[in-house]
């Protein structure tokens, strides 16, 4: 009787592993395809926002191109035309333009 109970226990454990293993595999794939790249992009964006300085040419999420005239904790002042300056949230800056991007 003990041998039969032992065989039933091992087959139950094997069935449980067979059911859980695909779920774990899907979780790992999801992590490496979605979560890890999103974290890397978030760190890159945070580094870009923290390194903003006066004179940088930037583009906002709304598509406004301008030159930074001043930087505060949560606000960036952009010069978008002669004698036209706007106050924009720092998080609204989507990228810094380089010489070749102009």
What does this structure look like?
The chain has 2 domains: 51 residues; 50 residues, SH3 type barrels (Roll). It is built from 1 helix and 5 strands; from the N terminus they run H-E-E-E-E-E. A 5-stranded antiparallel sheet has the order 4-3-2-1-5. The mean pLDDT is 88.
The global form is rod-shaped
Q: Numbering strands along the chain, what is their spatial order in the largest sheet?
A: 4-3-2-1-5
Low-pLDDT runs of 5+ residues are none
The number of helical elements comes to 1
Structural domain tally: 2
Name the average pLDDT: 88
Please specify the SSE layout and strand pairing:
Elements: H1 2-50, E1 57-60, E2 65-71, E3 75-81, E4 84-89, E5 93-97
Antiparallel strand pairs: 1-2, 1-5, 2-3, 3-4
Task: List the main descriptive attributes of the protein structure presented here.
102 residues; alpha+beta; SH3 type barrels; 2 domains; five-stranded antiparallel sheet; 1 helix; 5 strands
Give a brief description.
The protein is of the alpha+beta class and 102 residues long.
